[in-house]
Amino acid sequence: NAGVTQTPKFQVLKTGQSMTLQCAQDMNHEYMSWYRQDPGMGLRLIHYSVGAGITDQGEVPNGYNVSRSTTEDFPLRLLSAAPSQTSVYFCASSWGDTDTQYFGPGTRLTVL
Amino acid sequence: AQKVTQAQTEISVVEKEDVTLDCVYETRDTTYYLFWYKQPPSGELVFLIRRNSFDEQNEISGRYSWNFQKSTSSFNFTITASQVVDSAVYFCALSEAKYSGGGADGLTFGKGTHLIIQP
Fold first, then answer.
1. Do residue A44 and residue B98 have CB atoms under 8 angstroms apart?
2. Would the N or C end of chain A have less CB density within 10 A of its end CB?
3. pLDDT digits (tens, 9 = 90+) for B32-56
4. What is the pLDDT of residues A19-58, one digit of tens each?
5. Which of B95, B103, B112 lies at the smallest CB-CB distance from A97?
6. What mean pLDDT value characterizes chain A?
């Protein structure tokens, strides 16, 4: 049981490049979410999903896209990277939106 | 809108001292859930506790204890006889009632308290 996995662990992009951060969970959780963590800001919700085929925006969705074609996977796409998207990204999953969320190890993204 | 305030940005104590981390929250819902997470220097987020709004009983788990007071909208965390391994950033978080599809569901985090335990 791997829990929540994220790839890559580190990534450096140039402004304007696109990429996908991968997130997978093997706990059969319905709810998955993406957060970003910036110094002194805590974690902020980007997008979330309550089940396959259902996604919605969180607090800071601009510049990011998500889809949920399977229960296990919830990729986060950066369409055109900007320096303001330099952050640590965490994926999380839980049974429901108010249940305990279990976090992946994070992806540290730097946009130059 | 929901909000979580952790007014203590950094606390430094000497090992074996007791330390309390404060958490104050705001919500208009009567049903909500409160959480504490630990983020050690390695960076992962470790779940510590989940408490629902209808259960005001204090909880103790080893050296950790939590004091939930709805009257003051606080959910404070105390570490007794602190140890160097307790050094980490601690986050308090709030989740309101079930998915509404109106956006911004999920956890609302405080900005965290950096706890430093000196040997």
1. no
2. N
3. 999 999 999 999 999 999 999 998 8
4. 999 999 999 999 999 999 998 888 999 999 999 999 999 9
5. B95
6. 95
Is any Cβ of chain B less than 8 angstroms from the Cβ of A74? no
Tokens of A79: 């369409």
Q: Check pLDDT > 90 for residue B99.
A: no
A41 reaches B (C-beta below 8 A): yes
Q: Are B97 and A98 in contact (CB under 8 A)?
A: yes
CB of B23 closer than 8 Å to CB of B75: yes
Backbone dihedral angles phi then psi of residue B72, each to the nearest 5 degrees = -115, 5
Beta-strand pair B10-14/B113-118 = parallel
Least confident of A91-105, B44-58, B91-105: B91-105
Token pair of A82 as six digits: 């900007």
Structure tokens at B82: 């602190």
